[in-house]
Structure formats: C-alpha cells, structure tokens
Amino acid sequence: MRGNPGWNMSELRPDALGYRAGRSTSARVAVLASGRGTNLQALLDAEASGSLGKTRIVLVLSDRPQAKALERARQRGVEAVFLDPQPFPTREAYDEAVLNALRAREIGLVALAGFMRVLTPVLVRAFPDRILNIHPALLPSFPGLHAQRQALEHGVKVAGCTVHFVDEQVDHGPILLQAAVPVLEGDTEETLSARILAEEHRIYPQAVRLFAEGKIVVEGRKVRIVP
Ligand code: GAR
C-alpha cells in the first residue's frame, strides 16, 4: 500500500495505512504533450479558474516542435520546451534529459497529455505514483494507439476515458478515474472521439486536483480516494 504523497517528498510519513497523503506546499506540475494540447488547455483553464488549488503548471515539454501544446503554454506564460529526441541514441537517454528538465524545475507531478512516447523505467522509477496519463478508452480495454477506432471496430456499446498512474507497461498502471460515454448508432471515429474528449477535459483536472489535495491512496492496482 502506498499513499499519494502530495507534492513534497519530505512529507511522506508512514502511518497506519502505510503512508500518509501529504498536503500541497509546492504544487509544481509538468505537462508532457506531443500534439494539439486540448487536455493541457483544460488543465490550464482549471488552474486559471482556481479549481486546481495551489497547483501551478510550470512546464510544458514536447517531443515535437510544432505541437500546438507548446503554443498554448506560451500564450499562458508557461515555460514551453521542445526537447528533440533525434540526437539521443536511446529512449533511455532521452528520458534522462526529460528527467533533468523535471528535476531542475522541482516538479512534483507529471501529467501526460497526448505524449506519444512510451516512457522508459528511467522516468517511471524516478516519479513513482507521480506520473498521470489520460487514455481515450475504458482501460484495460483498448490500450495503445487509436483506442476510439479499436472500440468502434470491436462493437462496444459503451466507451470512455481513463486517468491512471503510469507504470512500466503501456496504458496499464493503477486507475484513478474513469468516465463512460455511449457509443451511438452511426458514430464515426471522429464523433466518438469528440464525445470522449469532452469527458477527458472534465476528469483530468479533477484527477490533478485530487492528487494536489493528497486524497489518493494507491493499494496495489487499486486507487482509493480518501475524504
Ligand atoms: C487524447 O485523446 C488523449 O486521451 C490521447 O491523445 C489525445 C491527445 O489530445 N492519449 C493517448 O492516446 C495516450 N495513449 P490533446 O492533445 O488534444 O490533449
């Protein structure tokens, strides 16, 4: 059993439950994104409206120079960094560079928002239960690419999205929040994706807020939300 330590590693204290969930002191978040960045925007908007508490998105990092996410960050005055994977000989070497960027900015939580790279253990082990991902499917169904298309092709009647902690397997770690949407007659990949995306924008800020408030306890595969 392990607790969501909130933001400050030094606040991690064993208690009867295993570890007490700490409270936010320096709530510094990095968002990693490769593309259009609508989930990033939802997080930025939630922060601006005050609904993320003390959370501050202080870094947006992308592996693609043209990512709209970088532009969205700059528009809000958030540091936007393009880190080119090309010169790095291995995925691990790239993740070391990402890790250095995160450490230099004292990041407490990493939120993947359409970051289209599989993280190596270099990053995952450095941020245990401190990396969130959003995936456009009701995991464990339809991990990987084109989740919405997979759902349509499989003929499911209910689809949705999942916020989970990142572990060393793809789209696999403990599930924090999920939201379901119906699959309607005549849905295309685009219409279903749009319906799911609206729910992504709702639950991702909610998940970051729960983390910031130290309300998350991870017990093996299970995530408990404490009052
Ligand atoms: C979102 O639908 C997100 O769930 C998905 O990429 C999209 C990014 O959109 N992520 C994955 O598929 C990760 N496995 P956005 O750039 O507009 O936030």
The proportion of residues in beta strands is 25-35%
CATH homology superfamily: Formyl transferase, N-terminal domain
Count of alpha and pi helical runs: 6
The first-to-last residue Cα distance is: 17 Å
Overall geometric form: globular
Q: Which fold name fills CATH's third level, the topology? A: Rossmann fold
Query: Which structural class is indicated by helix and strand composition?
Result: alpha/beta
Provide the helix percentage. Answer: 25-40%
In quaternary terms, these chains amount to single chain
The strand count comes to: 12
Notes on the protein architecture:
With 227 residues, the chain is an alpha/beta fold. It has a single domain, classed as Rossmann fold, CATH 3.40.50.170. Helix content is 31%, strand content 25%. The strands form 3 sheets. Strands 6-5-4-7-8-9-10 form a 7-stranded mixed sheet. A 3-stranded antiparallel sheet has the order 1-11-12, with no helix packed on it. A two-stranded antiparallel sheet has the order 2-3. The longest helix is centred in the last third of the chain and has 24 residues. About 8% of the residues have low confidence. Bound molecules: glycinamide ribonucleotide (GAR). The site of glycinamide ribonucleotide (GAR) has 15 residues, from helix 1, strand 8 and helix 6.
Descriptive labels:
single chain; alpha/beta; 6 helices; globular; binds glycinamide ribonucleotide
Task: Put the structure in a nutshell.
With 227 residues, the protein is α/β, with parallel strands linked by helices.
